[in-house]
Design brief:
By secondary structure, the protein is mainly alpha-helical. It is 77% helix and 3% strand.
Length: 266
């Protein structure tokens, strides 16, 4: 448990420095280090990542690097997707999906496998963006850009609803390439979008009566908030581009480990 809380600081540092990666670390820490059931971990992750992202977002808002109209435009379809996914899609998934010999694919295993795939995709995106600076779009207006943001908002909402992942690694490239933001504004805006999605999803679970381990959630969230403060303080001194590439390789290793553990090492 102590190791898990210590690693929670890394979750906050990631969010404070590069505006993403928090949920990618939170779920594996909860499941593999702190022995939390995967379904419960997705719910806990929503609160932990939401609170940490909100703290980082407020800090960025104080430096005027948050574009709130974009938070609203991106957040509304995401919230609708989070609600639909947690209320209807997730309950539709049966507890046992299939059995092959001695291997049984359960709902919990399937969610972890999906998360591993998302981690690997995110890591490759971070590695690529870490090798070069993402330049803002020259012409970021028009129906096409809004349509892409709408689709990405729905995509991030489904991801958040299923896996408790905030989706910052999906949001930031869209804000830069489609909305024409510079990287600092994209990170600040992304943090608010992640916070809104995650906290809305958690509130939905809480109202539905899902059992919560509030002690674990509170201590983990506090540790993550400490990390956000550290990460935000370091953001002006550390190259987020180079850091994102290194973090991407780290996430790639964890994603591959989850695949191996769930498929071969159970």
């Amino acid at each position: 448990m102590f190791l898990g809380y210590l690693l929670a600081i890394l979750v906050g540092i990631s969010l404070g420095l590069i505006g993403s990666g928090g949920s990618i670390l939170t779920l594996p820490i909860l499941v593999y280090i702190m022995d939390v059931d995967p379904l419960a971990a997705t719910a806990y992750s929503l609160f932990i990542v939401g609170i940490a992202a909100l703290a980082g977002g407020i800090r960025n808002a104080m430096h005027k690097t948050v574009h709130f109209p974009t938070v609203l435009a991106f957040g509304l379809p995401s919230i609708a997707a989070v609600y639909s996914t947690r209320k209807w899609l997730l309950p539709l998934i049966p507890d046992t999906l299939l059995s092959i010999g001695n291997f049984t694919l359960t709902k919990a295993i399937a969610l972890m496998l999906m998360f591993a795939i998302v981690m690997i995709m995110a890591s490759l995106s971070m590695i690529r963006s870490g090798r070069r600076n993402i330049e803002p779009a020259v012409n970021a207006s028009g129906i096409r850009a809004r349509f892409i943001m709408l689709l990405r908002g729905i995509q991030v909402g489904i991801l958040t609803g299923l896996l408790g992942a905030g989706g910052g690694f999906l949001v930031i490239p869209v804000l830069v390439l489609q909305a024409g933001m510079n990287m600092s504004s994209a990170i600040g805006t992304s943090l608010f979008i992640v916070a809104v999605n995650s906290l809305f999803g958690f509130t939905q679970e809480w109202i539905s009566g899902f059992p919560m381990n509030w002690t674990l959630i509170a201590v983990f969230s506090t540790s993550a908030l400490i990390g956000v403060i550290i990460g935000s303080s370091l953001s002006a001194k550390v190259s987020s581009t180079k850091l994102k590439s290194a973090f991407g390789w780290f996430v790639l290793v964890i994603g591959c480990y989850i695949l191996l553990k769930e498929l071969l090492l159970r």
